[in-house]
Write a structure and sequence with these properties.
6-stranded mixed beta sheet; Pdz3 Domain; 2-enoyl-CoA Hydratase, Chain A, domain 1; alpha+beta
């Protein structure tokens, strides 16, 4: 199995969404005999469950009672202490370790059949001859088509032990049904979506989460850009919900001089652990711009805060999410786990950027709506700050704690009907479904296109757009052609590029005319004139 930004199996999508809740490298200090020693409170809970199990008049699934109890306990702690069921844990773990064992295809169920969007380059399926547009009908004796199959069930049938073989029955237009044997292998779940040169001197790297493999991916991309002549870097952390802290610290280390404080944590006993740069970084002199928005959280904020508080670079965008709590994952012994908040983290100036959560989890997670209502997403003047949470950087710049990283240069959210509609259609996969169908009609022709030919073509023309508008109307979605035509062409071509060539080309096309990137280019140009 592989991943696609818009068409990923449910279990991978669930894993991506869990980024905000992920913990750190810290070691829990309590000894096991202390943690699990018996006491009256624990015995009381155990006795109640036993009474229900053995004495209650009706048969009750006490496992479900325990799950409910665990969740209710955690709800009374903080929004980021969470329970992960055994069914969810495997997907979450695979996403954050950065790979899994599968056959190496990106797919989605189309007309009740697994339809291959593309194969992972160099992966098991590509080596076995699987191609984009193929339909996988069976895996060994398991049927993979029909209305009742769930996405996570489909994924499970294609996964297996490393180097194990699976016999697939595949349908391909023009060839019919045929059998192919695929040897399962490690399939990467990339956390670096794109890496390329914006100009002859400015490089761009987009990170979607912080997993075990993120630093390695980032370092490889950074080295390629440096060889290409980069002396300015744009680090895109928009919509990055966080993840493991260690990769964020290692990336920050690439930019900061030796003994520069990156962040520190403090637990309930007051113990402080500080993290410093080693001085071994390969980009300590070049200019850095970090892009953030209201969905940049956790490890993203640690990295952005380290850059801002050390006067190392410029933060561009909108106020970040505001998560300053550190979690550690702990097994509950039955295949489930709990991520428990064990400390708070602070930026180098001493800021806690954790937003308040005293009004309950619902209010906490709906805080975005409050930002929307008070106009913060459209105007920097609407961002509420407290003088009591004012801090100064070494160069005397004022920064604030109390709920996210406030950017140095604000860029308003596109609130037009066009922008919001197209972004929703992109995230939900609606655009991708139309593009897949269009590609599928002329698969042989499209597969022959080189990247250069694709970039220079007018493949997404007015007729292609009209086809999408008709596709939308048939599903009761009305779109004004005069409003949507030009931006829709960019979204359609970007999505087509992703299905044909991958996420790097997708981001390149989608980033054209991007407001935050345009601000970076303007600031860079102004600096050069001074």
């Amino acid at each position: 199995m592989g991943t696609s930004k818009k068409y990923i199996p449910f279990w991978i999508g669930l894993a991506m969404g869990a980024g905000v809740f992920l913990g750190s490298k810290l070691n829990f200090q309590d000894q096991s005999d202390t943690l699990f020693s018996s006491n009256v409170k624990k015995e009381k809970l155990n006795r109640l469950i036993d009474y229900i199990d053995y004495e209650y008049v009706d048969e009750i699934n006490t496992d479900s009672i325990v799950d409910v109890t665990v969740n209710r306990i955690l709800e009374n702690l903080d929004p980021h202490s969470v329970y992960i069921s055994p069914e969810e844990l495997e997907g979450v773990t695979e996403s954050m370790q950065g790979d899994f064992i599968g056959i190496g295809v990106s797919y989605y169920p189309y007309r009740d059949t697994i339809s291959v969007i593309n194969t992972i380059k160099g992966g098991p399926s590509e080596k076995s001859g699987i191609k984009a547009g193929d339909r996988i009908l069976m895996a060994d004796q398991d049927t993979l088509f029909g209305e009742n199959l769930l996405r996570d069930e489909l994924a499970g049938k294609l996964k297996g032990a490393l180097n194990s073989q699976v016999q697939l029955k595949v349908f391909r237009k023009g060839k019919g049904v045929f059998d192919v044997v695929v040897k399962r292998g490690k399939v990467p779940i990339k956390s670096v979506d794109a890496s390329y040169m914006l100009t002859d001197k400015i490089g761009y790297i987009k990170i979607n989460r912080f997993a075990e493999t993120t630093y390695k991916e980032f370092k490889k991309s950074l080295n390629v850009l440096l060889k290409a002549g980069m002396n300015e870097l744009v680090l895109d952390l928009r919509d990055n919900g966080g993840g493991f802290i260690t990769p964020a610290l290692r990336i920050a280390d690439e930019f900061l001089e030796e003994e520069t404080l990156i962040m520190f944590t403090k637990n309930k006993k007051g113990a402080v652990e500080k993290n410093y740069a080693t001085g071994r970084g390969s980009f300590q002199e070049g200019k850095i711009s970090v892009l953030i928005n209201e969905n940049s959280a956790s490890a993203s904020e640690i990295l952005a805060g380290a850059i801002q508080d050390n006067d190392r670079g410029t933060i561009i965008g909108r106020r970040s999410y505001g998560k300053g709590l550190v979690q550690r994952e702990m097994s509950l012994g039955d295949g489930s786990a709990v991520r428990l908040t064990i400390s708070r983290y602070y930026t180098p100036t001493g800021r806690s950027i954790q937003k308040p959560y005293g009004n309950g989890n619902k209010a906490y997670f709906n805080e975005y709506l409050e930002r929307y209502k008070n106009g913060e997403l459209q105007s920097v003047d609407s961002i509420q700050v407290a003088d009591s949470l004012k801090f100064k950087t070494p160069k005397g710049r004022i920064v604030y704690g109390g709920g996210g990283i406030i950017p140095d240069h604000f860029v308003a959210k596109d609130s037009t009907r066009v922008g919001e509609t197209l972004n929703y259609m992109l995230r939900s996969g609606f655009i991708g479904r139309y593009v897949f169908e269009a590609l599928d009609e002329k698969r042989a022709t499209y597969n022959k296109l080189s990247l250069a030919e694709f970039k220079n073509s007018t493949i997404v023309d007015d007729e292609f757009v009209d086809g999408f508008l008709l596709f939308a109307r048939r599903r009761d979605i009305q779109m004004n052609a005069s409003e949507f035509a030009e931006p829709l062409k960019r979204y359609l071509k970007a999505t087509m590029a992703e299905q044909l060539f991958g996420t790097n080309v997708f981001e390149k096309i989608l980033n054209k005319n991007d407001a935050m990137i345009e601000r970076v280019l303007t600031l860079s140009h102004n600096d050069q004139k001074e």
